[in-house]
């Protein structure tokens, strides 16, 4: 389970980007030499649930997910991951999270199997267990014939599948994915979506950002909409659909502050 409460992150602006006194800010998130990329985001995702994180480009979704991964520290709010306070104990929380970002985070000169083993060793997984998990993940992601190929020789879709295997090798309780199907063909995207569904059925809490509402329809029990750094809706998919004549897309657009 993961619970996010009033999460915030701000970054110092370079002097060249700071507005002069009395001038209108180019973005309401900019103030006093700071840019509030995430201002107040809250949501929860229980074990066995899939939550879709929605919002326009620049809304703060990727920054939010990077905080959940412990890649960057929040400047406000709290995150609890499987009972662990992520802000107070990021190292312990990290062991409970599998994270996939826009970059695959793989080593191109290593094979798929070597990459997975490398990250498994980093988590201290015994070799016998690691080998079994590696074989299982390669099979579920349809990568058996690519296991011993170098990553830099793979297509973008196969790299994405390998990155998911790398993120899952330590059997995390929470899986966090940033637009996992972007750039994939229909077959590759379906393999990824099926894997996410399988992980949720196995009891994993899955949080993923997407611009594709059909993925939300197919997978999600809950949804959080982020706009201008704030969560503007957090409830069930059915509640969002019911909010505007039964249409998920209409309900989504109605919750955005900017159309």
Notes on the structure:
By secondary structure, this protein is an alpha/beta fold. It folds into 2 domains: 177 residues, P-loop containing nucleotide triphosphate hydrolases (Rossmann fold, 3-Layer(aba) Sandwich); 66 residues, no CATH class. It contains 9 helices and 11 strands. Helix 3 packs across helix 4 and helix 3 runs parallel beside helix 5.
Largest sheet: 6 strands, mixed
What is the distance, rounded to the nearest whole angstrom, between the alpha carbons of the first and last residues?
32 Å
Structural category: alpha/beta
CATH topology of the largest domain: Rossmann fold
Strand % is 25-35%
Low-pLDDT regions: none
Q: What would you give as the CATH superfamily of the largest domain?
A: P-loop containing nucleotide triphosphate hydrolases
Shape by Cα distribution: globular
Radius of gyration: 19 Å
Compressed to H and E, one letter per element, the order equals EEEEHEEHEHHHEHEHEEHH
Write a compact overview of the structure shown.
34% of the residues lie in helices and 25% in strands. The chain is α/β, with parallel strands linked by helices.
């Amino acid at each position: 389970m993961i619970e996010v409460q009033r999460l915030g992150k701000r970054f110092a602006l370079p002097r060249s980007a700071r507005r002069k006194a009395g001038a209108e800010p180019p973005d309401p998130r900019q103030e006093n030499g700071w840019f509030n990329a995430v201002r107040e985001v809250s949501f929860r995702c229980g074990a066995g649930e899939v939550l879709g994180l929605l919002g326009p480009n620049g809304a703060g979704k990727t920054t939010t997910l990077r905080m959940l991964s412990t890649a960057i520290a929040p400047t406000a709010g709290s995150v609890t991951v499987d009972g662990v306070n992520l802000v107070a104990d990021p190292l312990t929380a990290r062991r409970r999270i599998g994270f996939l970002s826009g970059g695959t985070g793989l080593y191109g000169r290593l094979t798929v199997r070597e990459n997975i083993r490398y990250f498994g060793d980093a988590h201290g997984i015994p070799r016998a267990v690691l080998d079994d998990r590696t074989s299982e993940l390669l099979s579920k992601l349809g990568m058996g014939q690519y296991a011993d190929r170098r990553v830099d020789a793979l297509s973008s879709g196969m790299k994405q599948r390998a990155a998911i295997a790398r993120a899952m090798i330590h059997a995390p309780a929470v899986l966090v994915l940033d637009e996992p199907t972007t750039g994939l063909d229909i077959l590759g995207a379906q393999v990824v979506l099926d894997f996410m569904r399988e992980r949720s059925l196995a009891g994993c809490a899955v949080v993923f950002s997407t611009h594709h509402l059909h993925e939300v329809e197919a997978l999600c029990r809950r949804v959080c909409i982020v706009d201008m750094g704030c969560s503007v809706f957090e409830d069930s998919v059915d509640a969002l659909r019911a909010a505007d004549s039964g249409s998920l897309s209409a309900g989504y657009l109605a919750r955005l502050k900017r159309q």
